[in-house]
Amino acid sequence: MATDYILFIHGVNTRQDRETPEYADKLFDLIQSNVESSVQLKKIPLYWGNVVIEQEKELLGALKASKVWNEFWFRDFRQKQILQFVGDGALYLSRHVSSLAIEQMSKQAYQGLEGYQDQDRLHLVTHSWGTIILFDVLFASRWDDPTIPGHESIQGIRKSILGIESELDSAIPLASVHTMGSPIALFTLIHIVGKTRDGSTHDISSKLKELLAILTQQGVALPWQNFVHPGDPIAWPLEGVLPKLVDEYDKVIKLEDVLTYGSGLLENVAKPVQSTFLALINGGSAHDSYWTSQKVAKKIAETIHQTAKGSYILGPSIMR
């Protein structure tokens, strides 16, 4: 019987778990409860937050040392969402820090995927900045230089997950992608800058095109659900953005922006003022809500069922 591996990559605001990444437990349990009993799932939660947490703690301490800190509004949102998100971004874009995170996550991924069989499938579930990390690991050209730290780990991941630069039968089939509260749309600006100047080491379009070619060769489409809560200030839609990266992507990638709700009592408070800055009162709850969302779990479970049934087989006209 085939096993469906679900690999999770967290974003911001999961630091309370540190080295014991339980952040995905609730969502995985919800997915498990929505699939048939015959479906065999395996959870692989990747954790990278401890790589950058000390630097962010140091910065937060310096901020709190200011005599005016206690006068700032929405301090909790600043330090748990904005600081972590921007801090993670600034630190991860540093090649030194990102290489440490990559090394750690690659070990976790290999351990989780150990012993997979040819008929098994892989589903990627990423949240927030975890989506940026996913795209960086799988597609960014900044890791192509064989002399830099992290290069070997990146190449190993790309070969084992995507089949890029390797024999296709040595890679576990990538069956679906699910992004939650993702800012990846904003990071396509890096690609646009790269096209108008001398290129960008964060450009993802080349390797993304390779993935499309591999999927076409395999004869399967890739379902991609982008979950967005309308009150999540970090989440952005993708349906109109992906064409800017890859032409005719929709022949192979089946992308859908999916609205979610249910972020708690503050959602009802924020709805009447949704067009104003006051709606940010629910921003943090909205950004974390995907991990406990029945709708997210149900949609992922449905996709797992559909991939198992071969519902995403490409037609012969596309494969030519």
Report on this structure.
The protein has one domain (3-273, 284-319): Rossmann fold (3-Layer(aba) Sandwich). The chain is globular, with a radius of gyration of 20 Å. The model is unreliable at 14-19 and 192-197 (pLDDT under 50). It has helices at 25-34, 53-64, 75-93, 95-113, 129-139, 151-162, 188-196, 205-218, 265-270, 283-288, 294-308, 316-319; strands spanning 3-9, 40-46, 121-127, 174-180, 222-228, 253-259. α1 (25-34) crosses α11 (294-308) and α4 (95-113) packs parallel to α6. β1 (3-9), α1 (25-34) and β2 form a beta-alpha-beta unit. It is 43% helix and 13% strand. It is of the alpha/beta class and 320 residues long. It has twelve helices and six strands. The chain has a six-stranded parallel sheet, sandwiched between helices.
Features:
320 residues; alpha/beta; Rossmann fold; 13% strand; globular
Number of strands: 6
The total of helices stands at 12
> Radius of gyration over alpha carbons?
20 Å
- Given the C-alpha coordinates, what overall shape results? globular
SSE run:
EHEHHHEHHEHHEEHHHH
| Major β-sheet annotation | 6 strands, parallel
Short description:
With 320 residues, the protein is an alpha/beta fold. It is built from twelve helices and six strands.
Secondary structure blueprint with pairings:
Blueprint lengths: L2 E7 L15 H10 L5 E7 L6 H12 L10 H19 L1 H19 L7 E7 L1 H11 L11 H12 L11 E7 L7 H9 L8 H14 L3 E7 L24 E7 L5 H6 L12 H6 L5 H15 L7 H4 L1
Parallel strand pairs: 1-2, 1-3, 3-4, 4-5, 5-6
